[in-house]
């Protein structure tokens, strides 16, 4: 779980679920090392459903303690066009008793190489109709950002960290972010700046109109218990 800071509310109001694999011998293995292999081996669906189910349980806990609290889950690009996707997710919703799907955001990368584009669009539309928020991850570095915005109705874009990291030193990147924020807002979408690594960048993202910020400067990915402690700590600090 990596916390997300809501600029307007001035509080941590969400988190992205980032899977970590704890190997008894090798320690914590980052997802890059096994997500790709899982995708190739056809095991990514099982992993994603497991992550989603756990994320929903955490969401229910967090929303009892510090509402409202958003949790984002990464949907592998490979499974977006799966014919059973919506049914599987509907089963998870039923099993967990999730009352309000809009507390969960599904992140899809811009680069998804769908075999079946029509099915993918239908799946995403169905999930959104169920109430899930949709987010385009790594926005701006994929193949078809604008076509995406036109084709896929979504609620949020996540500005790729390459723009975010460059914003303080490069005017061009600032201008690009400014326009992306304007475009997103005019489509009724929120903007998350990811990869914020220092205070100057955090302030730049706030000034440029981003709605949420995420990155090492705000907080590193952490376990739920540590997130709860952090929320507690920052709430005290704010009082
Ligand atoms: O968590 P970082 O900390 O290392 O994540 C590396 C990459 O792995 C990112 O692109 C992130 O989106 C992806 N990732 C992390 N957790 C998950 C997950 O649960 N499912 C999928 N499909 N990708 C994930
Ligand atoms: O592809 P996606 O945006 O889901 O990937 C999230 C990845 O970004 C994870 O690997 C996460 O650990 C990493 N990450 C989170 N905050 C920062 C940051 O401030 N700087 C960098 N370089 N990576 C970050
Ligand atoms: Mn992501």
Task: Walk me through the structure.
The protein is α/β, with parallel strands linked by helices. The protein contains 9 helices and 10 strands. It has helices at 32-40, 44-65, 85-96, 117-130, 145-151, 161-166, 171-186, 199-207, 224-238; strands at 2-6, 11-17, 21-23, 27-29, 70-75, 104-109, 133-139, 156-159, 190-193, 212-213. It has an 8-stranded mixed β-barrel with strand order 1-2-5-6-7-8-9-10, surrounded by 5 helices. Strands 3-4 form a two-stranded antiparallel ribbon. The longest helix has 22 residues, at 44-65. The protein is globular. The protein binds guanosine-5'-monophosphate (G) (2 copies) and manganese (II) ion. Residues 16, 74, 107, 137 line the site of manganese (II) ion (MN). Manganese (II) ion binds at residues 16, 74, 107, 137.
What key attributes describe this structure?
single chain; alpha/beta; 20% strand; globular; binds guanosine-5'-monophosphate; binds manganese (II) ion
Topology overview:
Layout: E1 2-6, E2 11-17, E3 21-23, E4 27-29, H1 32-40, H2 44-65, E5 70-75, H3 85-96, E6 104-109, H4 117-130, E7 133-139, H5 145-151, E8 156-159, H6 161-166, H7 171-186, E9 190-193, H8 199-207, E10 212-213, H9 224-238
Parallel strand pairs: 2-5, 5-6, 6-7, 7-8, 8-9, 9-10
Antiparallel strand pairs: 1-2, 1-10, 3-4
Helix pairs in contact: 2-3, 3-4
The structure holds guanosine-5'-monophosphate (2 copies) and manganese (II) ion.
Report the order of strands and helices.
EEEEHHEHEHEHEHHEHEH
Count of individual beta strands = 10
| Range of strand content | 15-25%
What Rg, in angstroms, do the CA atoms define?
17 Å
Strand order of the largest sheet: 1-2-5-6-7-8-9-10
Mean pLDDT metric: 92
The small molecules bound here are: guanosine-5'-monophosphate, manganese (II) ion
| Low-pLDDT windows of residues | none
Relative helix content = 40-55%
> How many strands, which pairing sense, and closed or not: the largest β-sheet?
8 strands, mixed, barrel
Q: How many helices in DSSP terms?
A: 9
